[in-house]
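Researcher: Here's the sequence for the chain we discussed earlier.
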Amino acid sequence: GAAEPLPLVIGGDICAAPLYAAYHQGYFDDAGLNVTLARTQRTEDTKDALSAGKYIGAPGIFFSWLEPIYNGINAKLTAGFHSGCLQLVVNNGSPISSYADLKGATIGVPSLSSSAFAYFSIGLAKAGINVDPEHGDITWTTIDEDSLGTRLTNGDVDAIMGSDPAPLLPVFDGTAHVIESNDDEPFCCSVALNGDFVAKRPEDAKALTEAWLKGSDYLAASQAHRKEIAKIEVDNNYVAADQSLVEEVLETYGWEASATAFREAIEPGIEDFKLTGYIDSGIGAAELADTVYADLGINR
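Model: Thanks. This is the structure I predict for it:
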């Protein structure tokens, strides 16, 4: 019979390009894996769903997985894809130009479990800002991603943060600009897999991760490939954006897919993330990194 379907999450972000490349280039098929793409609702908690086995894998910023895995969800991270897909944006003419300027601000974010919230909380904490949603220095407002730009332009919030393309739409319209991104991080997006799948089927988990990394390699190989995948994202309605915008965004990412370098990046990332208060400051970074990361023997 046919191999068991392995549903991987797609949520509408440009930065999931390695998954689209691996799927449409047939890399999962070549590995003997029956991967399906599962389109999720913005309101669905995909981390809990992946933990429960509804999905086998999902792309996502590794910072956003630290606290859930620390608190016991059934998931492992196995590799990283690229950098550069999170943006913190303010209107042109705003007096806000740095993290420090955001103390007392109202910030629009897709959710308090989103990748952008997790990542930019680190920069805010380093600037001495209390990021606690209930008693901190920021008023957090959850906004549907498709409405982030509109709410910023209307003045409902002082800043927005999110993953591409949503926060970039007012930037490309000429009404806003980026004040912070994760361009300097070695990795943003990573492979997150269901913990039972990793534990019980490590060879399949390895093959799936390697095929997914090949998707990132395909994008890294040439601008022509990136244009091809941008067209695929738009033609298949994976992303709600014009092809020209998707092409432009894909050119801004740093394509250095790796499992080994990703493991090295987790520990300093954990040390930074402890500043937010979302995980216990007393936990050892190496200990948590070993909990979060699954070594599948991928030597790249």
